[in-house]
């Protein structure tokens, strides 16, 4: 189908060594996001282009999935009314909200891994039809950080008034793995939209990163996100044996989501009505496209993980259906009771009988990482989620050489896991020592990782190894050492833009703004024009006393495509230059609190 979309761009060659920024309250907090690198090279240049799409349809509903973009359920239309039940974004514009940076708003996103929008949100999934009496679409992939296989089966059985989605998460390892799942459902927000859930209490979570239990909907009534002053999450204390959540407009029309009990968590997120919240919505969706999110997860909040035992599969079923409240203006308690009665009368979504059935026609290819893991003995062969050899590509070729020849023949994208760690310990080439350090870092063994990188640097001053050691120093707060190492790395690889960004940021943190400006003056015009680098230039110029340089950048207009959700760099720069007496222009106002 044709969509207006900005490409997410290639993966950064710099693997993510830092842990997720959101505080996790339990055992599931990963020490890093390895093996993934960031997707941070996108631009704000959407154009109309053809995007792979797969459609399911019966006499009541039409569902459209985007297998090339994380398997996103992009559209769900009630054919009896023509209503779109989801927020179908008029533009797919990546922005820095996901674990790996690039994320886009709209539809239903499947989040597996750890707190945040998942690592595969802009990546392709495998898609195939299932051997079933009516069309069943299977989306599946190997999630590399947790080492899990995710399978999403979607169907519109004849006569069904609900889209049925059965999810399976398989742990092929012998040991327990922390697991996190949230189905993130974007729906349109109108002034009268309200969100209903079977709960009298909710845990409020805002940008202060504190959980506070509050009454829901409370006084003032927070069930109407269009009235909020600031962005917030509400995690519901669900009491129903059939968990559900619904969002309806002022006329009582909207979407009802129910599930089997394993998916017990429910959440509401809204951007609020502050200038920053409004700007974020326009940044993600363009003008006049406000939306909110209703979500469903395995745990009660997104700061928690559950332990998935070894060699175990967890399954659940979700149902997405149109909802029409008979009394749209009813008080909250009566409206909630009406939905609850409808849910109880309908019963829990029927689990699809097709979870273990084989696929027939493969219609979209995901990555070759599952095939590589199968070749390494980490995944058993499966007709339900096949990862055949013909999906192996250039990304996997160095790791096949390690598997078959005991060496990495050159630079390679990161791979982690116990099997790979054992192979890397036996290899002796410099590339293997770098990846040995990455694997040790992914387990939390920082000292051993630094030792491996030190041995690699003793043989060759490699920019990726220098950067890894520098990042370890940055995480520890040693900005001076990090800056020196990154300058050396950048001199060896000046064309790697993510390395340029990290070097400039480290120089600023180390109190060396003049050196940052010297480096910027040597960059290519294309790199100097990049929004993130222009922001760093403006900050460096201000710190170095070159106020005119900062003022020129602000007057020309500063657009930072990868501005992070919650990042206050633009407003801080503006007020540092102008003082508090000057109002912050709307185009620079991304403040969320």
TrEMBL record:
Every DUF5107 domain range: 32-306
Pfam families named among the record's database cross-references: DUF5107
Domain of life of the native organism: Bacteria
Protein's organism: Nonomuraea roseola
Protein name: DUF5107 domain-containing protein
